[in-house]
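Worked problem 6 (solution included).
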Amino acid sequence: MSATDIPDASRPRGAKPGTTVVSRGLTLSLLLVSTVYFLFPLWWLLVSVTKPFGRQFSGNGLWFDGFDLFGNIGRLTAQNDGIFWRWMLNSVLYCGIGALVGTLLSAMAGYLLAKYRFRGRNALFGVILAAVLVPKILFTLPLYLMFSGIGLIDNPLAVLLPSIVSPFGVYLARIFAAQSVPDEVIEAGRLDGASEFRIFRTVALPMMLPALVTIFLFQFVDIWNNYLLPAMVLSDDRLQPVTVGLVGWNASHGVAVPAPLVVIGSLISVIPLIVAFVSLQRFWRAGMTAGAVK
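Solution. The predicted structure is:
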């Protein structure tokens, strides 16, 4: 028997010899095309921002042509007394506070639905699942009318209060708590005299860490990209997030604000999202077996 006649144990039974190689090649090709597709706008922004001011839309848009990055950032800072950085600070505060509080509330609600038995639990979880399917944009007008009636227009709470509610976060926390937090560990904590909140804080939260990081990132990105609600409830320029501010600059069509400044601000506005993903990815991968019973 020759070496080529020996069956390959790694190949599925009945598969042709070239099937695995072809499937892997197609998969890698699709991943490569998707990567190029999604990174293309970011690369264009990076190249445009480094060009001398006023040449962002001329020449080869995919390669560098001169370097004036720091001068462009200086012009961005000087525009309207540096209001861009106020918008960035507002976005960081709205996203940071909203995502942190929203993640904590989602973790508590998901843990409650997963580990406690009470009347109407399944019905409540069904309502949460239904809320996941409803686009948030449909709540914008009712929220505006409600906030207008209670005097919260031009108030940061009009942005923060809706951002801390995440039906998808509750769903994800409930699924992860049911799988990663053993009932035996909870019962052991109760036998040791620990309160329910202490068990949740010291036992359940560390085991749910990968899911909590995922919820936090989803919330952070969702709040950062939210435009319609802040645009409706915040008319004061100094309270607006960076998304609303940049759209306002772009709406001037280069009359009040030069168009290159919108491009420069767009690149800077995505840096916090990149930093959040890069800094939290190790927590995302870690602890995937934290719920195992030892």
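Discussion: Residues 23 and 29 are 10 Å apart (CA to CA).
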